[in-house]
Amino acid sequence: MKWYEEAVFYHIYPLGLCGAPQKNEYGQPVHRLKQILPWIDHMKRMGFTALYIGPLFESGGHGYETTDYYRLDSRLGTNEDLKNLVAYCHKNGIRVIFDGVFNHTGRDFFAFQDLRKNRENSRYKDWYCNVNFWGNNEFNDGFSYEAWGGYNIMAKLNQRNPEVIDYIRNVIRFWVSEFDVDGIRLDAADVLDFDFMKQLRSLADEVKEDFWLMGEVIHGDYSRWANARTLHSVTNYALHKGLYSGHNDHNYFEIAHTVKRQLEMCPASLRLYNFVDNHDVERIMSKLHNKAHYTPLHILLYTLPGIPSVYYGSEFGIEGKKTWGTDAPLRPALDLKDYKDAYETNPCTQLIAALGKIHAEVKELSYGDYRQLYLTTGQYAFARESVIVAVNNASEPVSFEVEAEDGVYTGALSAKQVKASDGRLRIELEGCSGEIFVKEGRTFEPLSIKVEDTAEKEEQKIPNVSAAQRAGKSFEEMSVEELQTEILERMAQRGPVTEQMKNDVVNNIWHDSLVNWVKSFR
To answer: Which CATH architecture has domain 104-158?
Structure first.
């Protein structure tokens, strides 16, 4: 049994959560990473057993244009701060994986700086892909090179260069020896060289017992990347899409088909990394047409085959949508003190905490074989060994029967008992809900409140703050209402502002996030 087989992940984008400036001036370290320590206590209380955090290391901007793999980003603090954070996680029984951005470096990375300075004479010219000294780019380097996604701030490393391979392997050795990290999420794994990934897998087996490699892969046959020779797991973007669109379209066939296809494609031992939102995609509460679907969607996240992950803040039901040229609304600065009452009053928080506890206690959700029991557009039921999971995306209550072993089952969310007889179990579900039926012998606390749809609530008013009120103030000095007005005005200067865009602004009440947002218009 390996730690990640039973893990429930919490995902933190630290530059956003800690409210770091979007641009790195490479000044004296600011110890913002310490702000995350209380979140570790929160994670433990919510039933999370592993932390995926990153990017962490020195970079020029959003973190994925690495400047120095050996030093914590100065906007977050020092290496000592990171050592303390990992140690505190381990003390609380929480494993930690870092973002490994090894497909490309930033332009401030030492090898690229040497290339700019010495051109054809640089000993690092073969560290990068397709360097052409007859070309040029928008930085007027006098040469061109391959970059991730065509963004020249991220120069693609030549992963077939033995020096590059040795360098990255030594970086990982350093991360293990210096910080005691438990694994790595490989950024842009779908464009990494396969032989390079094999080199990392052999190193993973060397540096630490059960060291976990998980790759960011969007499309394709996931078993190409995740197998005995390359990575242990990959991001399950296919299920991510199915989970929200299957609810928005009232089409559970999409989710069930995705699960069936993946079980046929991947060996049973492979556990994909399941999620409903992250630092690159819009918050699940912004994607759901009916907010009450938060409940059945997350029940599926925690009970379908795979390793569940929750993105920081989504356990509170916060929203976040992409805007022109920035992902800042997806990566807000949050203060945990603002959510101190969430454990008692926020139904999203209560649901995630309950599911975390259930996942820890009901091992079948980690190891049990999957078997589909019932499927319509609105209802879906399946077994994980003797545990039966059922969800309903319709707004009205439903009742249906599934095949089950005779005996008494307890609803892990409701604590209600039902009896199966003659090989059948009658399931009754409220609208936009679900249940996890566990066969006798275990008791659970009932979940007292449920997530409701907010679509019919009165539309929030758009702030109306005059330019005179904002005159002479820095963004940091403005109030939340002043920042919201400033953002709306800047949006209007770029084109039509839809009702959804307006709502995205007024629903964002976090000062640091709004400051970052308004600065992105520059």
So the answer is: Alpha-Beta Complex (3.90)
